[in-house]
Amino acid sequence: MEAGDPAPAAARSALRRRDHRRLQPRTLHPCQRRTGCRSAAPSFWHIPWPNPESFGICPWRNEILEGLLGSTILGFHTAYHCKNFIETVDRFLETRVERETSTISYRGKLTMVQDYPISIQWPDALSPGAPPFAETRQAMRQRFGIGDEQRLALGVDRLDYTKGIIERFEAVERLLEKFPAWAGCYVLIQIAAPSRSALQDYQNFAQKVRDSAERINQRFATGDYRPIRLLIEQHSTASVVEHYRACDICLVTSLHDGMNLVAKEFVAARDDEAGVLILSQFAGAAGELREALVVNPYDLEETAAALQIALTMPLAEQRERMRSLRHLVRDFIIYRWAGRMLLDGAEVRRRARVRERIFSYQSRYSGSLQ
Hints:
Low-confidence stretches: 1-15, 31-37
Number of helices: 13
Helix content: 40-55%
Shape: elongated
Order of helices and strands: HEHHEHEEEHHEHEHEHEHEEHHH
Number of strands: 11
Strand order of the largest sheet: 8-7-6-9-10-11
Distance between the termini: 36 Å
Structural class: alpha/beta
Largest sheet: 6 strands, parallel
């Protein structure tokens, strides 16, 4: 960005995240040329990008790719998703790909493709004036009728088939089969926010989740004890943070995910430096949060084993892991994520201007020789 650009400073960068606006970067770029605006135009694709074979079945594949290549910067959660996108472009469009600099040149427009793992606000903005942990735990146990001797795990997800909720329930079932001493002493609270509930497929999935929880509860019920408490309802941010602070274990076992910020929110909420995070290897956060217990959510034995490790982990080890996780999340908050994209966008614009000037010099020099 340069002084004297005609666009106001606040309008010189338009960061777009929504996948349903995937064609917008291409339409914005000609407007920038007409107005003389030299703004960075970063876009962020917040869901996993498939491999070229899977993407190739899309009837609008070229239009989507051309739309995204209108961006100055195109961000993904992980380097793996960047690799998939570059290979997809290389397969379906005539472009020049510079893999060393992770840039794509298409119709004279340069796009940098980079991984930008998205993050969160730090807890001062999430849980101002939060009550002490002991008070929060006691209130949560009283609300659900959970005894002091019972260990509390938590899942927070949209009610979506990609989140691995049924597989999570089955891992709990396997834990209670392998380690029957936990029956009566372990409870999973599953917050499942309704999602796309007008669609029949999602209605069917919601019923499968209910049926799975009910089957496992009937199998292991004793008196008032139920191993799974399923809450299919919306929760406020304050309520979710309260659950984060009250639980002993947080389960993030997505089958397929971009980043999954629940993992980072749980870590940020735990200023007591206690608690254990069990994290799917298929969530983008697994590439950053290495001190979590990382599992394959399709492997019920592995997830059940991780639950047993979490339930028996000494407090000193929990704190060692949590300190490291909190240090990482605190050092790379949402504002640094956005700032890095904008700075990279400015660098790409600078390189493009240099290329334009070099081309202009070469054109004048070649013309003088004729």
